[in-house]
Amino acid sequence: MQKTGFYAGMSPYLYPLYILIHPVDGYRELKNNKKYSMTAANVVLALWVLQRILAWGYSDFDFKTPAALESPVDLPRILLTTVALFAIACVSNWCFCTLMDGKGRLREIWIACAYALLPYVLLGLARVGLSHAMVLDEAVFLTYLNAIGLLWTAFLLFEAVYVVHDYTVPRAAGAIVLTALGVLIIAFLVILVTGLATQIYSFFKTIYFEIKLRV
């Protein structure tokens, strides 16, 4: 009863931070007592986009990726590899887990998975700042930070699927594999449809200019 009272008094806006160190209890409270906030989840996603922008355009020159060195901040590419990819993954997880008797709704999946991104985002922001205080020989420490952020987030994502859908450990692992497969399938279909639409547009554009020249 004491735990319930503690959870009940906690603001849903603090839950992303609480889940960082108490993922199982935090996600169960999120699922059972609706202790979540769509606003907080979207703030985490916005921070992820901000982190990528800062890493692309404002990291120290020695620590920039080749893509960042070749071009200014590519916002469409950043949005495609953050928010768009996240949305596709959530839809994929919802589709497969619905077929696998998962109990999570799309809203819960979105929020729980957004919360799981927080370690990667926060450590990513720290890496941008530290890149200006370190020399190239110390780059290994930034690599360690990146690895910690990825592993921490991966663990939280697993816990999110495990708790939100009320799965066993093997079933949760299978759901994550199927989600990744679904992301690849959706991405392939999007690329296929986009390519087709581009070809159709080019075809009608050519016809239009031909008619215009003749008239």
User: What is the β-strand count?
Assistant: 0
Q: How large is the radius of gyration?
A: 21 Å
Please bin the fraction of helical residues.
over 70%
Distance between the termini: 82 Å
Helix/strand class: mainly alpha
* Mean pLDDT across residues: 86
- What's the shape? globular
- Continuous helix count: 10
Q: Could you list the spans in which at least 5 consecutive residues all have pLDDT below 50?
A: 1-5
N to C succession of SSEs: HHHHHHHHHH
| Count of discrete structural domains | 1
Strand residue percentage:
under 5%
Sheet having the most strands: none
Provide a concise account of the structure shown:
This protein is an all-alpha fold and 215 residues long.
Describe this structure in words.
It is a single chain. By secondary structure, this protein is mainly α. It has helices at residues 2-8, 15-21, 23-33, 38-57, 66-70, 75-99, 106-116, 118-131, 139-164, 169-214. The protein has one domain (2-214). The protein is built from ten helices and no strands. The N and C termini lie far apart (82 Å). Mean pLDDT is 86; it is low at 1-5.
